[in-house]
Amino acid sequence: MSAASTQIEVTRDEVEDLMFLEAELLDEWRLKEWLELFTEDAHYYVPATDVGPDASPDTSLFYVADDRFRLEQRVERLLKRTAHAEYPRSKTRHLVSNVRIRGRTGDELDVGAAVLTYRTKGGLTETYIGSYRYRIEVSDKGLRIREKRCVLDMDGLRPNGRISIIL
Amino acid sequence: MNAMANQPNILLDSERHLFKVARRSFVDPQILNAERTHIFDRCWLYLGHSSELAKAGDFVTRSVGKRSILFTRDVKNKINAFLNSCPHRGAQVCRESKGNAKSFQCFYHGWVFGADGGLRSQPGQECYDADFNKNGDANLVPVPRLESYRDFWFICFDRNVQPLADYLGNAKAWIDIVCDQSEAGMTIVGGTQEYTIRANWKLLTENSIDGYHAMNTHATYVDYLKNSSGSMSAVPFEGVGYDLGNGHAVIEYRAPWGRPVAQWIPAWGEDGKREMAAIYARLVERFGTAHADRIATSNRNLFIFPNLVINDIMAITVRTYYPMAPNEMHVSGWALAPQDEGAWARKYRLLNFLEFLGPGGFATPDDVEALEQCQRGFENLMEAPWSDISKGMNKAVPSYDDEVQMRAFWSHWDKCLQSGVTA
Ligand code: FES
Ligand SMILES: [Fe+2]
After folding, report:
1. pLDDT the model gives residue B230
2. Share of residues in chain B with pLDDT > 70 (%)
3. Complex ipTM above 0.85?
4. B91 lines ligand 1 (CB under 6 A)
5. B112 lines ligand 1 (CB under 6 A)
6. How far away is chain B from the Cα of A138, in angstroms, using its nearest Cα?
7. How would you write the pLDDT of chain A (167 residues) with one tens digit per residue?
8. Domain CATH for B282
9. Is residue B40 situated within a structural domain?
10. Three-state secondary structure call for residue B290
11. Which position has the higher pLDDT, A8 or B138?
């Protein structure tokens, strides 16, 4: 963290721009570009719904707990024809709302939001309801995601059967 | 039922080594009704694990065999299972999925029960006779049978069922291999994976013990292992499938992935190597080299009839599933681990679990897709009525990627339903 980056002012508009861009890249299946929104040490989490929003993947079972390497591998996988769960690819729409900067520590923003994601495949539409918590790095290169956590407001995944898209 | 008596669900031709299952079995509501009566109401069903009720007062509610069950550890440390329905006028007494409580109060009229099921008080007690609950009528109703094996608790709605130990039969030795990993006992790690698959429940039985599909269905997982430097040992896939009797079955095989007990992979580094070596050395002390090798380096997909899976692979998952309809099942999955393993091993175990297992992993979503595609394929059953489960019938010792373990399930399933036909 440079002294300069801690002084850069960030508005909610800028944070929203990042999140809306993220949603658009996911929905257009531009997953390689989506990855570029993340830092080199990024993490992406979807906890189980009975462990609390702040649970650690070191001690509790999650649905998804990716470090940067595994996140890249997830993208590689999803872009393959042999990712059968997503072949032919589903249509998705991430609706991101209620964005709020909850706090800031040095070069890092703590951001919360609400998210509703629709996934349609084979004549069936599934809904994933939840909240996002982001840790966003502020630097002179702009905003990048250091951690994304999607906490589902659901009883498990039911009525859904999988998280084969990125939430 | 008449239709079933006339038309076989299974075609077996021992001479030509053919085994076929009628696809009707996956779609017919009458067959699901027969399964409820002759399987789910008669077999031992998995309820939960002792570690989920670690302290006196701990409780879990869970749906098992279409009943809502309250699973408790009472003040005397006794484990109980009750039908979660108020003896007064029927409301669900406990509405939380887990917790710790001294007593349970039904919110409707306020009857209070202990964790041992006993009625403690009811508002307006003076309006009932003094010996109102003399014969225990007003206590929570216990499940007809509750027994455990190595901390796995099972219930049965048939009071006359054989003891759990006899029912498990040959499968006990395989549960032992999993549990012997730990001297302190095994534990369910916090966090439940709950999901719905739009497919018949028996498809998940087949899939959970299917060594045949891995290379195709899980091609991207194998790619992932190859891409991650050091995520594979030099071990090839090879192994055997067994029919354990009573509908239980298992495949046991070697595989190149890392096992937290205890097959090291380079990705785990020197710390991991030391940890694995220590775990392995202790197993050798306890069991000798041959058995220690088996515990540490062989993988097991163990199926307990009718719907419990304990897969001891790159991590251990315990999984159970119930039909909601012929074309829909609810799945619950947990992670099982040695209670006494260190923070390092626990962390890598969970990492390993998620890369393959569960509906957010690199493999299970493709299984879900496969099962749902089968269910869709069954729409054509009038013209395409049979599934083939013959692989390996022409061998003396079927391999882990043959289908003997599925035939074990289907044969027993058929026997259970036949018992209903003739009764
Ligand atoms: S139904 Fe439970 S107290 Fe009346
Ligand atoms: Fe699979």
Report:
1. 76
2. 98
3. yes
4. yes
5. no
6. 29
7. 556 677 889 999 999 999 999 999 999 999 999 999 999 999 999 999 999 999 999 999 999 999 999 999 999 999 999 999 999 999 999 999 999 999 999 999 999 999 999 999 999 999 999 999 999 999 999 999 999 999 999 999 999 999 999 99
8. 3.90.380.10
9. no
10. helix
11. B138
Place of tokens 């039985």: B205
Which residues are CB-neighbours of A62 under 8 A, at least 6 positions away? A45, A46, A47, A48, A51, A55, B191, B350, B354, B360
Contacts of B394 (CB under 8 A, 6+ apart): B17
Residue B236's pLDDT band, with cuts at 50, 70 and 90, is confident
CATH of the domain at B137: 2.102.10.10
Question: Domain check: are B248 and B397 in the same one?
Answer: yes
- What integer pLDDT is reported at residue A5 of this predicted model? 74
* Count of domains for chain B: 2
| Region of residue B201 (left: phi > 0; alpha: psi -120 to 50; beta: else) | alpha
In angstroms, the CA B346 to CA B349 distance is 5
- Judge if B196 and B95 occupy the same domain: no
Residues of A in contact with B372 (CB under 8 A): 161
Does B214 reach chain A within 8 Å, measured CB to CB? Answer: no
With the C-alpha atoms ordered B342, B344, B349, B351, is the resulting torsion angle positive or negative? positive
Residue B384 in any domain: the answer is yes
Tokens found for residue B155: 């219930």
Tens digit of pLDDT for each residue in B41-64? 999 999 999 999 999 999 999 999
Listed in sequence order, the residues at least 6 apart from B304 whose beta carbon sits closer than 8 Å to its beta carbon are B46, B168, B171, B248, B310
Domain that includes residue B260, residue range: 171-419
Q: Tell whether B387 is covered by a domain.
A: yes
Boundary residue ending a domain (B160, B191, B208): B160
Q: Please give the pLDDT value at position B1.
A: 44
CATH topology of domain A7-152: Nuclear Transport Factor 2; Chain: A, (3.10.450)
Give the per-residue pLDDT at B421. Answer: 63
B108 CA → ligand 1 middle, Å: 5
* Strands B45-49 and B308-312, bridge-based pairing: unpaired
Mutate to test the interface with A, among B51, B52, B188, B196 (most CBs of A within 10 A): B196
Nearest CA in chain B to A158: B195
Mean pLDDT, rounded, of chain B:
94
Instruction: Please tell me whether residues B194 and B137 are part of one structural domain.
Output: no
The verdict on B150 and B178 lying in the same domain is no
| Cβ of residue B89 lying under 6 Å from some atom of ligand 1 | yes
Give the angle subtended at the CA of A84 by the CAs of B380 and B391, to the nearest 5°.
Answer: 60
Q: Are residues B224 and B117 in the same domain?
A: no
Same domain, B150 and B195: no
Distance CA B406, CA B402 (A): 9
Residues B376, B267: one domain? yes
Token couple for B111: 């009857």
Residue nearest atom 3 in ligand 1 by C-alpha distance: B109
Q: Within a domain: residue B27?
A: no
Cα B209–Cα B210–Cα B214 angle in degrees, nearest 5? 130
pTM of this structure? 0.95
CB B303 within 8 A of CB B309: yes
End of a domain among B160, B186, B205?
Answer: B160
Residues B57 and B152 in one domain: yes
Q: A141-167 burial, b if ≥16 CB within 10 A, otherwise e?
A: eebbbbbbbbbbeeebbeebbbbbbbb
